[in-house]
Structures are given as C-alpha cells and as structure tokens.
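Exam revision sheet. Question 4 asks you to relate a sequence to its structure. Input first:
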Amino acid sequence: MALEVKIPPMGESISTGVLAQWRVEDGAVVKKDQALFELETDKITSEGTAEAAGRISLKVAAGTEVKIGQVVAMIETSDTVAAAQPAGAQPKSAAAAPTVSQPSATEAKAPAKDAAASGFPPSPAVRRIASETGIDPAGVSGTGKEGRVTKGDMMAAPAPAKAAPAPAEPAERQTRRKLSPLRQRIAQRLVEAQHEAAMLTTFNEVDMSAVMALRAKYQDEFVKRNGLKLGFMSFFVKAVVHALKTVPAVNAQIDGDSLVQNHFYDIGVAVSTDKGLMVPVLKRCDTLSMADVEKAIGSAATKAREGRITLADLEGGVFTITNGGTFGSLLSTPIINPPQSAILGMHAINERPIAVGGQVVIRPMMYIALSYDHRIVDGREAVTFLVKVKQAIEDPARLLLSL
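Answer key, structure tokens:
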C-alpha cells in the first residue's frame, strides 16, 4: 500500500513554506517516525516524519516552495518493503556468524554503536558541529539512545588533523542566495515595527554586585536541588514582571483604534539560532520560581536551536528581553517585537569605576536599555519602569517584598 507524505498543518497563519532539505534519499527504506525533511516557514523551521515504515519515493525537490497539505513523497508500506533492512545495514547469515569469544577490555568499554551503525540521521546540533569542526559523525561512537550520536559525543571527539592548505584559488567577489522565509519574516517585522511605532529608547546602568554575590553564595545548593545553574536572565525576568506590575502602561498594546491592557505576564526571551532570531515565550512568569524560569529558558532555547520550536512556543508574549551582552555588546537600542509596546536590552558586564558614598569604587556594571512605543508609554512611565528593574537587580530582596 502507498502512503502519502504531506506537508503538515502549522497553524492558521501559515499556508506555505520551503522544503529546505530532504533527510533521506529517493528509494531509501525509512522507519516509522524517522525524520524525512526540514520545512522552513516564515516563523519556524520544523521536521516532517514518516507515519509508517517503508520505501520512500520523493516527489518534490529540495528548495521548492510547498503548500500546507501538499503531497511531497510516497511511502510503499507493503510488508516486504517494511521488513527490509535500512540502507547500509548488513544482513545476518549463519555463515557470517562470528566465533563466540570474550571481548577485550577496550571493546567492553566502547559504546555499542556509532553514527553509521545506528541507522538514525544526525540531529541539527550534531550537523552544525560537524560543519563547524569537520568531524564526521559516522566516525563518532554514539552514547545516546540506540547508539545515536549526541552533541556531547561530537564535542568530545578529537578534531581531524588539518591538511596542508591548498594554493588559494581566486575567490568569487559575490555570491547570491535567496533569503529563507524565516529571515524574510524577521526583516518584515523589524521594518514594520520601526514604521508603525513611535519608538524611543531610554537607558540606565545596573550594579550587578548583589546578584553576582547571591549567585556565588547559593549556586552550589541551587544546582544540587534543581540540577541546573542559576543564571542572570531569571533575575531579569522576575524584575521585569515586578516592573510591569508597578507600571502597567508598559504591559499594554495598540490594536487598531483600541488600547489593550494585558493582565498576564508571559515574557519572551530572544534566542539566537542558525536560522535567525527567535523569541520563545515563558508563560505565566509571575507564578514561576527562579528555578522554574531557568528550566523554561533552557528548554525553550534548546528547542529553538535544534529546530523543534512550535508556534505555541512563540505566541502570546507581552514583553521581550534580549541579551546582546552574550556577544559582547556594550550598548544598543533594541527594536520592539510587535504588537508588544516595549523591549528590554541587556548588555555586557564590565568592571567600571563609579561613585559610591563619595568614594570611587570598581563595580561590575551593565547598561540596560528600554525601547518603547511612545504612542502608549510616556517618558515618565518608561523611566520609572527601568528604575524599577534597576532597583530589583541591585537589591534582589525587593523582588520578595514587592517593593
């Protein structure tokens, strides 16, 4: 029986996408739930999987724009085909059976499978590391489930020896490639934000001493109890929620000729990926503990970078935080994420001389920036909001006392 492979529905706002890459070859035998292709839309990149085992026949070339529901391949699911060995697997036979013997110490310690034997295609993270380092996943012993090669396996693998550089060939002066749907959508939204909003940015600086001391004091206990480290972003998420409650005008947005006041606190955290910037939304941050915020941030960032993000993960945010400091940015004016009315920019932490109590001292300082829609938020409210964030970070006890 032949089974149609269709482009799956991605949400009401998405009708087309680009079949960016086939993960299998034409005529290959695939397994049930095996990843077949990567689909790029104007919002997310996702994978299409096989609904049944069988031999696949590709109907659409990689790079083709496709519609939701379009048939892009067929899978022959007859019992004979489904039972066939995957490509590259070696059939078993009595004549080829090895003599039973005790494994050597080296063999006993080695993982059971490597990338080639596992029969599974490498994950996006593994492929990215392979392209950056030149390490072939097929030669790496996998420690993951059923012998899959993990990101950790690739990071631990020795880099291949570099051959002597070949004589330099004249490089092309230019190359041209089409923008991905995701990159086109990012560009469109950024331009719309600048044209439609009366955007203004105000700045302040934060002494990070208190937060850094708090992290140093309780980090080991926090890791032991929660299994992950306490980062700076969770402090800023809680500080933003505190500031939004104090200055509700920032937690509003314009919809046509109406002003919509939000009474919930779903905060977007910008994540940089190979495909572009994505903003997963952490739901109900006012009810989350610091540990819950850290777990939500880690999970969302991993899903975004591995191409597993969904529309539900990106929708509904009322405010966004972006951290250019991870790349060394000292100061910037972040662009609002429509239809939100404001965005907070974090930056690099640098030791600088400041005046404290009439004395010049060296403190770890961070510049913070609030870009806001002046149609909704007045300057007084924007400055007050940023001061509330500053106070909460410089004196974290305020977050517990709601001061």
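Marking note for examiners. The first helix runs from residue 79 to 82.
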